[in-house]
Amino acid sequence: MELSTIKDAFERVVKKQKLCFSKSQDVIYQVGCEIEQTLTEILSAHDPTSPVDYRSVLADLKVKLNGIGSIPQLEGSHKELNVNLSKYTKLLERSLNSDISKAYRYVDFDHHIVTQMIANHFYREGSFNLGDGIIDEAGEPESTILKSQFMELHQIVEAMKVKNLEPALNWVSANRERLNQIGSNLEVKLHSLQFLEILQKGNLASALQYARTCLSPFASPPSPHKDEVVKLMGCLIYAGRLDSSPYSEITSPTHWEKSMEDLTRQFCSLLGQSYNSPLSMTMAAGFEGLPTLLKLANVMAARKQEWQAMKQLPVPVDLGKEFQFHSIFVCPVSRDQGSQENPPMLMPCLHVLCKQSILKLSKSSTRTFKCPYCPAEASVAQCRQLYF
Questions:
Q1: I need a surface site. Which of 258, 290, 309, 386 has the fewest CB within 10 A?
Q2: Among candidates 195, 236, 240, 235, which has minimal Cα distance to 213?
Q3: What is the tens place of the pLDDT at every residue in 324-337?
């Protein structure tokens, strides 16, 4: 069943939920209005010569509330919601395979690497106690280097969340040479944030002094940040009132968030680690490829031994661009991955096959062959190797 069917059913449930909520609010409003009017009538009766018959007033209120029919209205809308919700649940049960063990294949994992990957994931997320627990339970040596590095990263980020840039600036200063090698502009970003923070507090003299000390090196040629520093100097005119100035955009909290992200990304880069957790990326890729694997497992159910022994999937598993880290060519004919011994070859018709497929199609180096994807013909000599 197509995912569009599930999506349509979900949208119907959402629509009914919104209608149910709206109906409930209307009924509650009507009941509240009648009660408020009755209370007003009771409280405004101060004339002792014409006392209010409270029983009569309450009886009238009861009649009005019965006339609203709050219970039948609420029951009707909730019934419609429950019907659609029940249909959606049954649709999910029919459509989605809850037993994913069929797609499982035994792989002889390196338990040491897996344990380290899980522990480092928790260290990366700041859950240091969980990381230590994984290491202790597995009896693995503690990866103290990564733990201490990620602990330093989290201390820096937590300080930035309360607009304390001192730890971040100290780290940038200690790693300035390595950051310059990767073309980082993190240092000027952090100094700009610190300058604006001082200026927003209305301390013009301190802001000017900070600019002379920390920003002036970035204003001299051949620095690429000259225009940015000039713009910051224009902010001096609006000390203490930057939020209502022409420069209000540079005071947006998103600049702090972006700087924290940049610092985390560059910290991981210098550490030799990816910005995203390898464990998280592996799990996400597995979730995306799971439907294809389940379908393949069902098709190969009668050939279980062949499925377990298979070294390469017979069908491609299409993943998003976020899971593509480097260029890989897979021959559309042989399904083999390109390599130095079997490189991709560009034919005159601009279709690409691997070298071994071209040799098999030509049967000899001099014979022409037809492209499997178009009517054009080519020879081995006319094909050119591609380099990714």
A1: 309
A2: 195
A3: 777 788 888 888 88
